[in-house]
Amino acid sequence: MARPRKPAEQTTSPIYRGADGSWHARVTMGRRPDGTTDRRHLQRRTKTELRDAVRELEHRRDTEGYTWTQGDPTLGDWLEHWLSAVLPMTVRWKTLSTYRSQIRLHVLPTLGNWRMSEIQPEHLEEHYRRMQSDGHSTHTIRAVHRVLRSALNEAVRRRRLAANPALIARPPRGEDVEVEPLSIEESRRVLAAAQATLHPARWSIALSLGLRQGEALGLLWADVDLDDGVLRVRRSVQRHTWEHGCPVVDGSPSCGRKRGAECALRTGGGLLLVEPKTKASKRTIVLPQPLVDELRSHRAGVNRRRLAAGESWDSTHDLVFPAASGGLIDPSRDHTEWKALLKRADVREVRLHDARHTAATLLLLQNVDIRTVMSIMGWTEMATAQRYTHAVDELRRRAARQMGALLWDQQAGT
Predict the structure, then answer these.
(1) What is the mean pLDDT of residues 269-274?
(2) 206 and 313 assigned to the same domain
(3) Contacts for 355 with CB less than 8 Å, ≥ 6 apart
(4) Which residue, of 137, 167, 197, is where some domain finishes?
(5) Does residue 384 contact residue 280 with C-beta atoms inside 8 Å?
(6) From the centroid of its chain, how far is CA 362?
(7) Which of 167, 211, 244, 252 could form a disulfide with 216 if both were Cys (CB 3.0 to 4.6 A apart)?
(8) Residue 399 φ/ψ, nearest 5 degrees
(9) 375: exposed, middle or buried (C-beta count within 10 Å: 0-12, 13-18, 19+)?
(10) How many distinct helices (H) and strands (E) make up the chain?
């Protein structure tokens, strides 16, 4: 039996020159879920360019199969919808804020006006090469790639896009980040110098337990059981950006201020206590006995300062590490104090996050098994531990020495 003849509009795409001087075509792709015909509009500067684009689209339709998609928004329009209507229900504020910044700085200026159906993997790879030429790090480029991949995956799921080009595009190869922990001697010098700071125990916790900055600053005394010698990580400090609280008129805040922090009716910003970023981050840690003793002394000192301050003390939260007048310590101020502490201890300058790396390294060098280290540090992936190659190499050498002593030293003595 002969195959039914296809309608003419499915075999021939009309091409015409518009009043704007450009060449246009309507390519029939198939049927929408409601049964109506789905036609795609193409526009190019010359007739030759348009013919090539029509052939490519028809070839994709005939060979790759047809997937109906709703409209053909620009990448910028879809990303704005994704950021404002989809993500807020599924991610935390800090993640959303990071995504917004990456898209605004690194995606919209170059790719924002592209129709999503036109974006190919090669376009993304070319964009990554331009970012490299502009001096952006591999870490930044790979972060942008992850955001695009996630956003376009959602577009495919919601039938705004037939296929995700970011799944095929290859970003630059990731750089191996070398962990630079403090040595045991450097750590001891830091702890000695910390005795002259407002909160010496703050830095003892950083170097011995490896708490993240926000986790340490968000500790409440209710989280610390000194009798049982345990500490529970339940929350973290974050600084949120202030938003305008005034009415919007003609697309702009009515207060006339550019930044939300300058609005008299500002809302949603400042220092806040938030939930940790992962389930593994909520954890219970057994404290070394010297740290228990130090925290007892520290609590007595905090109580003395609170009594001396009287009504001027901010008692909103019963913090383990309150600011000078109570209340939450700003993470930027905490970072500045870390830098000053290193200088006072005559120790090379390292990041505050390297205190966390130091704690993890010291645990590994004491033969603490990797699962226990992951539990203490709040890691969710074994791959994170593989970054500590310097510690792992030392453990391998130690294992080799122990095996040598077990099998060969006894033979040498017989």
Answers:
(1) 86
(2) yes
(3) 182, 203, 206, 207, 210, 338
(4) 167
(5) no
(6) 26
(7) 211
(8) -65, -40
(9) middle
(10) 17, 10
When comparing pLDDT for 270 and 135, which is higher? 135
Residues 197, 137 share a domain: no
**Residue 273 and residue 208 in one domain:** yes
* Owning domain of residue 32: 8-64
Same domain, 86 and 52: no
Greatest CA span in the chain, whole angstroms? 101
Nearest to 126 by CA among 77, 72, 165, 83: 165
In whole angstroms, give the CA distance from residue 98 to residue 114: 23
Per-residue pLDDT, 78: 93
Same domain, yes or no: 114 and 232: no
- Same domain as 119, residue 45: no
CA-based torsion, 401, 404, 407, 412: positive or negative: negative
Query: Do the strands 270-274 and 283-286 form a parallel or antiparallel pair, or are they unpaired?
Result: unpaired
Residue 1 inside a domain? The answer is no
Domain count, the chain: 3
- Read off the pLDDT of residues 90-103 as tens digits, 9 standing for 90 and up: 888 888 989 999 99
Answer whether residue 409 is part of any domain: no
Phi, psi of 285 (to 5 degrees): -120, 130
Euclidean distance between the first and the last CA atom of the chain, given in angstroms as a whole number = 92
d(CA 134, CA 57): 33
pTM for the whole structure = 0.70
Does residue 409 register a pLDDT over 70?
A: no
Asked if 35 and 145 sit in the same domain, the reply is no
Decide: 352 and 338 in contact? Cβ < 8 Å: yes
> Which tokens in the block code for residue 216?
């340490």
Judge whether 410 lies within some domain: no
Backbone φ, ψ for residue 233 (5° rounding): -90, 115
Task: Please report, as a single letter, which amino acid is at residue 229.
Answer: G
- Range in 129-133, 151-155, 221-225, 253-257 the model is least confident about: 253-257
DSSP 25: E
Question: Each residue of 126-160: pLDDT tens digit?
Answer: 999 999 999 999 999 999 999 999 999 999 998 88
Q: Mean of the pLDDT values across residues 114-137?
A: 93
Average pLDDT (368-395) is 76
Tokens of 347: 């120790």
**Cα distance between residue 212 and residue 217, in whole Å:** 9
Residues 156 and 211 in one domain: no
